[in-house]
Amino acid sequence: MKYYQLTGKIIIILALLLAGCNKILDVKSNNKLSVPVTLDDFQAILDHAANMNTDFISIGLVSADEYYLTDADYNAMLYESDKRLYTWQPDYVSRLIASVGDEWYNTYKGIYACNAVIDGLQQNQHTGIIARNIKGQALTFRAARYLDGVLAWAPIYNKATARNDLGMVIREDPDFNKPSKRYSVEETYEYILNDLHQAIDLLPPTQISRSRPDKSAAYGLLARTYLYMGQYDSALTYAEKVIQFSKELIDFNNLNSSSNYPLPAVNGIGTETIFYNVMFYANPLSGSVAKITPELYNLYPTDDLRKLMFFRTNPDNSIRFKGSLSGGSGNLTGISVGEIYLILTECNIRLNKLAQASEYINTLLVKRWKKTKYVPYQFTNATTALEILFKERRKELVFRGTRWADLKRLNRDGAAITLQRTVNGQVYKLPPNDLRYAVAIPEDVILLSGIPQNPR
To answer: Are 223 and 246 in contact, with CB atoms under 8 Å apart?
Structure first.
């Protein structure tokens, strides 16, 4: 894989774009300050990994039940907002705008880069295969950012309430001076789906790097989106399309469990990765402080190789995570082959196709267990099958950021899961369907934009 460096002029453009210049793409320039014009310019914007592939939202993982902090590590947290997020406080859970770790800023930084590319392609009347590919990439990146955001800052999709629930601020062009408006959850999901459906017709089957989205990336994001919406027939359709392109699973029997990062990577991208994105490395998630909950760790039987590949025992016998599919320290949030097999399994269960569901889960798990030790599932009851499926989602997608949205949709569907943490002797609880599952938007964003805050 090759990361492309932005030219100096494009760095300047993005800096001005994010600083709030009006219609920056229309500004005439000199040799030191010029706007992106060529196809190479627009591809370079999308190949800038620091803007496009990193700093996806960590809010959900910080808030979910996969890890805990000791009192000492909690008390030593540098940012009060991290402490408040960890204990599910209703407000002031974000860092100041445009500071390191401002997840709203990180999200819209990526969105505005996509808008600059899409607008620039149109303004410069670029056509042809290369232009179509670039536009398809920008649409996919934009959809990925909006999906990331709506799962963090809005209620989970509920058909009965989605038209009234507050969703994301939708921005379609690089003009920062247009007033911000929060669209509904329904409108936000429609926007995400529209971007992805457009992208499918524009993207090639493969790209030179998995940091560039291809058709299977767009199909995978569609499958994930429809799954969270509870539209299982559509989710199944697009998950099936993914494995027409990407279906190779890593055999964990061939990995070295003593390695710091056992899962293989090619130029920093995990080999099961379909679309490479990693989340912001929030302080509470640091490997030196985040301890895996015993309840989660004990879900892995001895012969499940993920217990060896995903975790390491600390000197104090607590457990830390080491098994990122990125092949390094970054926690992958992008689409992986393993996630697609889980989506295929769940959708087939939901549609009462239990034989097909059994086949898909077995295809995944036989690659995760010690040879000859795995006993294949034969689902005969949908309720039991779903219980197994969600246990396997927790185990396979640990530290991937999916658990928060899974908790939201499970509680939407009646699971009645209450989260609990004890800090300095005080017990904090998050009941099912609590308003705090839609994390508070940064207060300075509310002040500057005038958009409504999430109900508390």
So the answer is: no
| b (16+ CB within 10 A) / e for 390-420 | eebbbbbbbbbbbbbbbbbbbbbeeeeeebe
CA distance 169 to 182: 4
Using CA atoms, how far apart are residues 228 and 403, in angstroms rounded to an integer?
A: 12
pLDDT tens-digit series, residues 220-254: 999 999 999 999 999 999 999 999 987 889 999 99
Under a CB-based contact definition with an 8 Å cutoff, are residues 336 and 325 in contact? yes
Class in CATH terms, 8-251+333-449: mainly alpha
The pLDDT > 70 percentage for the chain reads 92
Report yes or no: 129 and 202 within 8 Å, Cβ to Cβ: no
SS3 148: helix
Mean pLDDT of all residues in 15-23:
39
Read off the pTM.
Answer: 0.92
Please name the amino acid found at residue 429.
K
Let me know if 78 is exposed, middle or buried by CB neighbors in 10 A (0-12, 13-18, 19+).
exposed
What is the signed CA dihedral for 31, 33, 37, 39, rounded to 10 degrees?
Answer: 90
Quick one: what percent of the chain has pLDDT higher than 90? Answer: 84
pLDDT at 148 over 80: yes
Q: How would residue 432 be classed by pLDDT, with cut points 50, 70 and 90?
A: very high
Report which residue type is found at 201: D
| Separation of alpha carbons 16 and 18, rounded Å | 5
pLDDT of the residue at 97: 78
- Containing 422, the helix (H) or strand (E) segment is strand 419-423
| CA separation for the pair 239, 342 (Å, rounded) | 9
Q: Phi and psi (nearest 5°) for 36?
A: -65, 135
By DSSP bridging, strand 319-321 and strand 311-313 are: antiparallel
Cβ-based neighbours of 44, under 8 Å, separated by 6 or more: 4, 5, 6, 7, 10, 36
pLDDT at 31 over 50: no
